[in-house]
Amino acid sequence: MNRVRAWIALGTSVFFESARDRVFYVSFLIAINLQFLNLLLSRLTFVRPERVVVDVGATAIVWVGLGLSVLLGAGMIPNEMEKKTAILVLTKKITRVDFILSKSVGLAGILMLNQLILGAVWWLMLEQVKSPFNTVNFQFLWLCFLMSWICGLFAILISSFSSRTVSVLLGLGFYLIGINLSLLREFFPGPGSKFLSQIFFDFEKFHLGLNLSYGVALDHQVVLSASVYAVCWAAALSLLAAVVMKKRW
Questions:
Q1: Do 242 and 235 contact (CB within 8 A), yes or no?
Q2: Mean pLDDT by 10-residue block, N- to C-terminus, for the chain (249 residues)?
């Protein structure tokens, strides 16, 4: 019970610290501008303008979420070390696992807030073109949150033994590899394909593609399966970051 309280307390601190970070406000402004640009682009077509708002808006949400997650994740541990707050926290019977899990909780909170805000703006843009905001849109926002969270946790892992810049670059690279796993499997068939599936997160499971474009919701079992897959990876990345941190700090 005390450990849960510690996670909540530290996670809340991480949440508010991230909410005050300039990266959060800059990413929010970029996303808002992209959504309004998206609406303007939809006015240039007379055939299914709502498709433009759906597809371009979704792309903006994905990349803004990914950028925010890796930038925040890459700075969490280095910032704590530079300000010496990590050393102070770790001397108060807080384990490395608790410390990393609190970062994971705080990061999840700020990314969820980001998805809620961007989702609300996206809904307003869809209202302008008379397009419904239905189940598949909510599924997209949830799966996008999970993707961003995993990339952020991967950036936290890399930042536990490397610099911020390397963490950001590898975090984005981790996504680009994961979203193209099917293509990589064609180049490395057989055992190589299985190996790639085991060491890289399969982001292809989280892209709705034409389902989102045509408003066709996924089966709830598919969403649940993807959610469990993401949570297992989140736990593994957090524990691995804690192990690395214990070795280095």
A1: no
A2: 67 78 82 81 74 86 92 84 61 71 88 91 86 89 95 92 90 91 76 71 87 86 94 92 78
Q: Which domain, by its residues, includes 145?
A: 2-248
Nearest to 169 by CA among 71, 28, 243: 71
* Count of the separate structural domains present in the chain: 1
Choose among 102, 117, 109, 120: nearest CA to 25. Answer: 117
Structure tokens at 243: 């192990």
- What tokens does 101 get? 């899990």
Q: Rounded to a whole number, what is the distance in angstroms from the first to the last CA of the chain?
A: 26
Rounded Cα distance between 73 and 60, Å, is 20
Burial level of 55, CB count in 10 A (0-12/13-18/19+)? Answer: middle
**DSSP string covering 201-238, please?**
--GGGG--THHHHTT-PPPHHHHHHHHHHHHHHHHHHH
Q: What is the pTM of this model?
A: 0.88
Angle of the 135-159 helix axis to the 164-178 helix axis, nearest 10: 140
